[in-house]
Each structure stands twice: as C-alpha cells, then as structure tokens.
Amino acid sequence: MQLAHEEDPVREAVRRECPDLVVAPYLKTAIPRDVWSVHTCLVVHPGPVGDRGPSSLDWAVHEGADSWGVTVLQANAEMDAGDVWASVACPLPPVGKSDLYRNEVSDAAVEAVLLAVGRFASGTYTPSPQAPGDGERCRPLFPQSLRRIDWQSDSTATVVRKLRAADSQPGVLDEFLGGEWFLHGGYPESRPGGRPGDVVATRDGAICRATTDGAVWIPELRPRRAPGGPATFKLPATSALAGRLSGVPERPAPLHRTGDDNTWSEIGYREEAGTAFLSFSFRGGAMSTAQCQRLLRAYRFACSRPTSVLVVGGGRDFFSNGIHLNVIEAAADPGAESWANINAMDDLVEAVLTSTDRLVVAALAGNAAAGGVMLALAADEVWCRAGAVFNPHYRLMGLYGSEYWTYTLPRRVGAAAADRLMRDALPVSSTAAHRLGLIDRVIPCAPQSFDSEVGALATRLAALPATQSRIHAKKSERDRVDLTPYREAELVRMHRIFADPHHPYHELRRAFVRKERPASGTAVPPPPSPRD
Predict the structure, then answer these.
(1) Taking every annotated instance into account, which residue ranges of this chain make up the domain Formyl transferase C-terminal (predicted)?
(2) Angle between helices 334-353 and 289-303 (to 10 degrees)
(3) What phi, psi does 42 have (nearest 5°)?
C-alpha cells in the first residue's frame, strides 16, 4: 500500500515494487504517463460506465438519481475514458454525498475492485472499450453557481438536495448575518419556519433556516477564506455564528422519540420489545466536549429505563472518531479545550464500562477511529456492518491516547496485538477486526438495513435466558477491577502533551483541521505501548 500525495511517491513505489497491477482507489491527480504506459493501472471511478468528470456524485445527488454505480477503468491519457474492467451498480438513498461515498458507493467499489483484480489475475479477461457515445456524459467540476440557494423560491426539498450534493466538500456558499459562509449538511424540518432564509432556531449546535414551505437544519458552517488569509475550517454553526444569534431560540428535540416525531437532532432514544436503543450521529464522527456531555446525559437516562439490553449507536455512517479537533483548534486555548474534551470522552467511556445492570452493545454502522474505537470497546459486545473500517490508534495525531484504551484494547486483543495496532497505525477492516477479537459480530447488510438488523439481533439477545446470567457475572467481574489507575496514567501522558505548545500534536492538529501539510520538521512521536 502506498499513500501518495504527489506523482513522485507513485513513481518511487512502482520502481521499488515492480507490481504486476496498480490499483488506485482514490485519486486527486492523474497517474503519471510513464507509470500507466508501462504497468496496468486500474482507477476506481464513483460513477456508472460512461460517466466522467471530477464531480460524479455531486451531479447524481443534485439531479435526484436513485441509483448509481462504480466503474473500474484502466488508466490512459484521457481521464475516466479507459477500458472497463468491472462495473457494479448501487442505490442512492436520500442522504449526503459523503455518507453515500463511505457506504453504498464504497461497498460497490470494493465489489468492483475484487471483480476486476480477479479478472486480471485470470489472465484470460479482455476489458471492454467504452462505447463512442459514452463520452457524452463527461461533465465539468460542479460549480457554486448551480449550488446556490434561492431562499425566496427554493422549497425545503430543493434546499436539502443542494446541501446534500455539496456534503462534505465544498459546501454551499451563502451570505447571511453579515458574513459569507459555506453551509455543510442539511436535514429537513417539516414544521413551518419564518421568513425564508431567516435563522429561526438552534439545536445541538445547528441552526434552523426557514424555507418557502418549512425549514432546514444546517449543522456546520465554514467561513469563506479571505484573500491571502489562512485556510478556514468547519465548525458547529452556532459556534461559527457566535455573537450573531441574539434572540434566536434554542429548540431542543425530545430525547425519547415517538414514531411520529421525525425532527432532526444528534441524539435520540427509543425502546422496542423491552430493548433500548440510544442513537447518535455527530458530523464527521467528531465529538466535542459539549456533545460528549449531551451524550452522557442521554446515556444515563437510557440506563434509568427498565431494560436488559442497551444498544448504543446504530443508524448509518460514522460511529465516532473521538475528540473534535476543529472545535479544539478554534478555541481560545486549544490545549485547555483538548484537556476538557478528552476528560468528557473519558467520562462517557467510564459510564459505559461501569454499567453493570444491563448488557451494552455498541452498534457500528460505519467507521470509527481513536477514542471512538475505545468508546465501542467499552461495551459488552461490539457489532459492526461489514463495510466499517477501524483505526484504533492515536499516533498519527501525535497522541498517547486515553478513553481507557490501556485497559480495553489489550483485554480484547492481547498485549502483543494492541502494541502492533498502535505501532503500525493502519486501518483495520471489519473482517480483520473480527479475526483479532476487536469486535464480536460482523453484520453483512446494506447501510439502509443496518438499523433493522441490529434491532432484530438485540431483541433476541434480550430474550435469551442466559442474558441475565451474563449481567450478573459482569457485575462480579467489574467489582474486581479498579479502573482508576488506567485513566490516571493515560491522562498524565495526555496532559503533558496538551500543556506543551511545542509538542507535535499541536502542529499535526492545525494541519489536519486546515487540510494542509504539517510544517517541515514535524515528526510523529514513536508508538505508545499500554505497558509504558
């Protein structure tokens, strides 16, 4: 595997490895001619046969397509015009572009790549040239002029579709409340709003803007970059608009949902057949101090209910990626906010670890990383969708790690495997995670089916006679383990990092948030070990 940011690493890797086949699943620049002209190079394009151009999914979502596809092409001199090795169709449910990319499109891409590689390995397959008429679907980069929202005439459905087609990049450029902002994310609100375009409410860090026939919740904003100014980054909308929302009411959604209440919020709770489901969905999987605290309050409410099984997660897309680096970067004191955020994450993980009166299941519909993985590992069972990917490490951000990882990770996979996961800092597929013992169950289903699959499995788990015996045994085991030393030792290391303004974490965080390269000379610290 070669992570390539420029042409030279590609050339260097090809010269070093002398591969029979090069597969490029994600490209921002073309493969150099001197590579594809010598080696068979397969490119994964997120569109059906004949679709070309850099904004494939943007156009599909904007036009309301309900099905799409992924094509594996052989690289040549013309972008997306090479011979076809494989093509797989996929549905496009009404969600954001980035969500589709990580789920339905990713599933189709894996299937198409495996099919193409198998065909190449057979030595007997001849790829199909694209038909002359296919090039008619070569479309340009999707412009902001088409994304622009006309608040005086666009319906809620139109506004949501425009926002979804721009999620998570580049966003939809808009001007309001004295500034220019890129809008990120969009969820419909059926209740009547106010004057179209006005901000009429806030909730969970999001703003609600009225449309001609309802309203739309917008969770994140990114200020437009000033000429010659530093790169900007996404923030919770209310944080980005701090000081500009005087008189706008906060309208929290009820935590305990009924079947008729489908308004948007980050956290929701429901019960089915005596089983509890605490769902949450945080943008990009990042969890700020405030989000951790809200989820902890919801978790404590869920634990007050008379159920024997509590499922945490579900839904679709990210489970959690740990602390919210964007919110930290925007803070007046990023070191202090880092410390507050990691303690809030620890409080949440501790609550899950010390729940002894029920079985807790972490249900991961999508990816998880760093502290988000450790939040899942605090549960009694970890279930994930087959397409989920895990990054159970902190090293690439220069962190030692917290969230009780020195207890939960070795307990799950053993000390040697825990060391290796932290040292190598490589992604882990759901299959590999199950083989390692990192998770307990892989659920092979479409993203839209994950919630119902988890619901059926959890209901059966609650009905098993052995479940009460497991709860009793769990309490006995927890009473024998003192978790305090794990948290204290981890936080000593983390506080040292956060309090040192010259530690690589701060430069790595700045570069990550602003999507820039770290400053020259910034070195990632050596891997941590739970035995340190």
Answers:
(1) 146-224
(2) 20
(3) -105, 130
**What element of type H or E holds 409?**
helix 405-413
The backbone torsions φ and ψ at residue 74, rounded to the nearest 5 degrees and listed phi first, read -90, 130
The CA-CA-CA angle for residues 246, 250, 253, to 5°, reads 165
Handedness of CA 435, 438, 442, 447 (dihedral sign): negative
Strand 199-203 relative to strand 206-210: parallel, antiparallel, unpaired?
Answer: antiparallel
180 and 68: one domain? no
In contact, 250 and 201? CB cutoff 8 Å: yes
Q: Are 372 and 510 found together in one domain?
A: yes
Distance in angstroms (rounded) separating the CA atoms of residues 114 and 395: 30
Does 532 map to a domain? no
Question: 3-state DSSP helix/strand/coil percent for the chain, to nearest 5?
Answer: 40, 20, 40
Q: How many CB atoms lie within 10 A of CB 351?
A: 16
Q: For 431, what's the count of Cα atoms within 13 Å in the CB-facing half-sphere?
A: 2
Q: Which domain holds residue 65?
A: 7-137
Instruction: Identify whether 127 is preceded by a cis peptide bond (ω within 30 of 0).
Output: no
Helices (H) and strands (E) in the chain, counts: 19, 23
Domain count, the chain: 3
Strands 359-364 and 381-385: parallel
Q: Are residues 381 and 333 in the same domain?
A: yes
pLDDT tens string 13-56:
888 989 999 999 887 778 899 999 999 999 999 999 989 999 99
Signed CA dihedral, 504, 521, 426, 282: sign only: positive
**42 with 21: CB under 8 angstroms?**
yes
Residue 256 inside a domain? The answer is no
Tens-place pLDDT, residues 436-480: 999 999 999 999 999 999 999 999 999 999 999 999 999 888 889
What are φ and ψ of residue 26, in 5° steps? Answer: -150, 115
| Domain limit, last residue, from 137, 167, 202 | 137
> pTM here?
0.94
505 is a domain residue: yes
> How is residue 380 written in tokens?
């009694």
Q: Helix (H, G, I), strand (E, B), or coil: what is residue 164?
A: helix
pLDDT beyond 70 at 2: no
Closest C-alpha to 277, from 464, 450, 458: 458
The Cα-based distances of 275 to 76, 380, 459 in angstroms read 54, 15, 6
Q: Is 271 helix (H, G, I), strand (E, B) or coil?
A: strand
Q: How far apart are CA 321 and CA 327, in angstroms?
A: 14
User: Does residue 131 share a domain with residue 55?
Assistant: yes
Upstream peptide bond of 168 is cis (omega within 30 degrees of 0):
yes
